[in-house]
Specification:
The protein has 315 residues and is mainly alpha-helical. 61% of the residues lie in helices and 2% in strands. Strands 1-2 form a two-stranded antiparallel sheet. The two termini are 30 Å apart.
Length: 315
């Protein structure tokens, strides 16, 4: 869907719904600090916190034993990126085959795109080069995050909710389809020369810079648990320092937001659907960043007061 359209497709409605859900969750979490002690001990409040927290932010959450049945290890994060790499590589190869007129999309995939966008298949329209570039960058991003989970990050015994796990498994599947759906509203196939201009280049440069920021942040977090030899010495949580951690508690979340913004630029900045994805990512990362920020503040009395949660000088 483009900015010139006013109706919402099924896919637009999906991302808008997710964005609003996390906006409400973020607002509810901020407001919870002003609730009575009795309400904060209620089953409803505990269930809400159990669904939005994971990892270290669950540590001080007092939960009934039946809620712990739904815990799965946070280290299973790598499953999300493994699924993402496999699925998005498949979509990318399918787009390349279509772009070079080797074969069109499978009928089942075409049917899914029609259902999500509400736009009938035009039959012979190949994917836009900018869309293929976004698919390629999604594959690069997913592969990097997979390798970081497997070989860089040091996970503790933290947990996440089964609902969060299932959501994560499906997230990148829908995300890959969303990138592919950007073609359904396109006016024409165009060419690399006519389509890719300064805004696409700016998006590509921002993608590289944001990816480097995120990787550097993940390395700094991992070093907190490693000795000089590179071996893991502790699984305890300590105050992160260095890099953008001097400005915010979660620069890796800020980098994630920048990565999605960069992909919006690579799409030419005209994909209304993708900016709904960015809106969702903003509220999702804002909630996760605020929870981590609150954890650090509550755990360490000397935690730097000038640091924000995940956007420097803002939030």
């Amino acid at each position: 869907m483009t900015w010139s359209s006013v109706s919402l497709s099924l896919l637009d409605s999906f991302w808008l719904f997710l964005a609003l859900c996390f906006l409400v969750a973020f607002a509810a979490h901020k407001a919870s600090a002003h609730l009575s002690r009795g309400y904060r001990k209620s089953s409803l409040f505990t269930l809400f916190q159990d669904l939005i927290r994971y990892g270290k932010t669950k540590q001080k959450l007092h939960r009934a034993e039946w809620l712990r049945v739904f815990d799965v290890p946070k280290r299973w994060f790598w499953h999300f990126y493994a699924i993402s790499v496999c699925w998005n590589v498949f979509l990318l190869l399918s787009s390349f085959a279509f772009l070079y007129q080797l074969q069109s999309y499978p009928p089942w995939l075409t049917g899914m795109l029609e259902m999500l966008t509400g736009v009938p298949s035009s039959g012979g329209q190949a994917p836009q080069p900018s869309t293929v570039l976004v698919q390629l960058l999604l594959c690069v991003h997913s592969l990097r995050r997979l390798l970081e989970c497997l070989f860089v990050s040091v996970f503790s015994d933290g947990a996440m909710h089964l609902v969060q796990y299932l959501f994560g498994l499906g997230y990148y599947v829908v995300l890959g389809l969303t990138a592919l759906c950007s073609d359904r509203m396109a006016e024409g196939p165009g060419s690399f020369r006519s389509q890719l201009d300064w805004i696409h280049l700016a998006g590509f440069v921002l993608f590289i810079m944001a990816s480097l920021l995120q990787h550097r942040s993940m390395v700094l977090l991992a070093r907190l648990r490693k000795g000089k030899s590179g071996r893991v010495e502790t699984l305890a949580h300590t105050v992160p320092e260095g890099g953008w951690f001097e400005l915010v508690s979660c620069p890796h979340y800020f980098a994630e937001l920048l990565i999605y913004i960069s992909l919006g630029f690579v799409l030419g900045g005209l994909s209304f659907t993708w900016w709904l994805v960015v809106l969702y990512v903003f509220f999702n990362q804002a909630l996760a960043g605020q929870l981590c920020h609150d954890f650090y503040i509550s755990k360490y009395e000397s935690y730097p007061k000038h640091r924000r949660a995940f956007i420097p000088f803002v939030l």
